Recover the amino acids of this structure.
């Protein structure tokens, strides 16, 4: 009976979330950003009902555990799958066969992804969960000091504490500074891995060095490249800490529902408030949907890359069909706005699915990425759940706005796995010494 009531609760919450995403699209996205290729086809009641049903049904397959894989599914379902369907509802203008293929591919692959949460590890059922060993913590501190020194040296004389309206100018000014090799990886790794690590180490163990490290890295990152996203990861880690990784789906649903309801009901007393509400909606929920539509329209006409947008594949086979000076997001910017400086990066499903393999690659990419994370989740199941989830926040954030292989690198998943691998080596070394 308790499971049934929980299922009913999740369905009601998801329906409310879907409904307000839909209402806010009509009220804010189109009203403010029609100049930026946001529009609505005024869908019929039947079409709205069909999309709502396709959006709602997969939630019934989600087993709300606390593993890395479950965290991924919740992020994917709420911030990629549902927003994409809302934008398809309003903006898709392709032929009926392509629409059918897209909807079936999205729905079937998502149901599969949600269903295998049944087999994901439940960290709360594991006794004697591992914490990171002192040797690993010392290595993290050494890496932190090295990364901070590298950022300071690379951007020395170019640090600026700017307002939000000057962030893009700061990025443009500092984008060509490369005094330190791999600085284009060091900054994202500091953002995606080290800031979350130190945030959770302070929250769980009250390590003052970790508090200082997280705050200092955030300041360096913001003053060098103006990365606003750096401030999201500590908030995400705090959310995971206070919830202890439990009920991720319902907790995030409550938060997103309140967020969307406030956007919908708060009065628009002036144009600035109206614009800010619209911008918050688009930046939080709209990018996945808009890029899906834009990438579909472009690559349906010009043909997919067949994964040649993946750097190491193209360096081997050299078959990127477009001008090599333009990345995927720049192609979209040039096509829709006439300038490659308008760089519209997109999540892994759009970049690797739509752009990489076309509409027939949607399901394949979804399933392969989910299976990869499923395997990683099992490999790390003996570790403390909140620590593992905190480590992964940067990677999952990257997945919502970048291709899979880019997310592996800049999102810090590879660095995270190397740290855990080092921790395993220490564990087995000490175990052998004792025996």
């Amino acid at each position: 009976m308790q499971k049934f009531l929980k299922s009913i609760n999740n369905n009601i919450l998801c329906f409310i979330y879907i409904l307000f995403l839909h209402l806010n699209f009509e009220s804010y996205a189109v009203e403010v950003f029609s100049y930026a290729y946001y529009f609505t086809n005024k869908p019929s009641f039947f079409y709205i009902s069909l999309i709502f049903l396709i959006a709602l049904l997969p939630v019934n397959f989600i087993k709300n555990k606390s593993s890395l894989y479950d965290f991924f599914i919740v992020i994917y379902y709420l911030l990629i799958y549902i927003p994409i369907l809302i934008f398809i509802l309003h903006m898709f203008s392709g032929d009926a066969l392509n629409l059918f293929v897209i909807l079936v591919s999205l729905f079937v692959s998502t149901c599969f992804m949600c269903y295998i949460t049944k087999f994901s590890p439940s960290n709360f059922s594991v006794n004697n969960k591992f914490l990171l060993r002192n040797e690993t913590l010392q290595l993290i501190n050494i890496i932190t000091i090295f990364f901070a020194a590298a950022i300071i040296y690379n951007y020395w004389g170019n640090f600026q504490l700017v307002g939000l309206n000057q962030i893009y100018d700061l990025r443009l000014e500092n984008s060509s500074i490369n005094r330190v090799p791999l600085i284009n990886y060091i900054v994202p790794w500091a953002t995606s891995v080290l800031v979350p690590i130190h945030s959770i180490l302070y929250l769980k163990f009250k390590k003052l060095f970790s508090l200082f490290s997280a705050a200092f890295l955030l300041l360096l990152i913001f003053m060098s490249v103006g990365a606003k996203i750096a401030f999201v990861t500590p908030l995400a880690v705090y959310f995971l800490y206070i919830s202890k990784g439990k009920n991720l789906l319902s907790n995030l649903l409550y938060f997103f529902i309140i967020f969307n309801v406030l956007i919908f009901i708060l009065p628009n007393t002036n144009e600035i408030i109206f614009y800010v509400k619209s911008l918050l909606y688009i930046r939080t929920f709209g990018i996945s949907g808009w890029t899906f539509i834009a990438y579909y329209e472009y690559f349906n006409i010009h043909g997919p890359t067949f994964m040649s947008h993946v750097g190491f594949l193209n360096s081997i086979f050299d078959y990127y069909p477009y001008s090599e000076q333009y990345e995927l997001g720049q192609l979209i910017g040039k096509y829709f706005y006439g300038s490659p400086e308008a760089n519209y990066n997109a999540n892994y499903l759009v970049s690797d699915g739509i752009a990489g393999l076309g509409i027939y690659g949607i399901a394949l990419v979804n399933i392969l990425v989910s299976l990869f994370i499923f395997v990683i989740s099992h490999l790390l199941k003996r570790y403390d759940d909140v620590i593992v989830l905190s480590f992964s926040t940067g990677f999952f954030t990257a997945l919502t706005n970048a291709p899979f292989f880019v997310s592996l690198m800049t999102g810090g998943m590879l660095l995270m796995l190397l740290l855990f691998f080092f921790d395993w080596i220490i564990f087995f070394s000490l175990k052998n010494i004792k025996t």
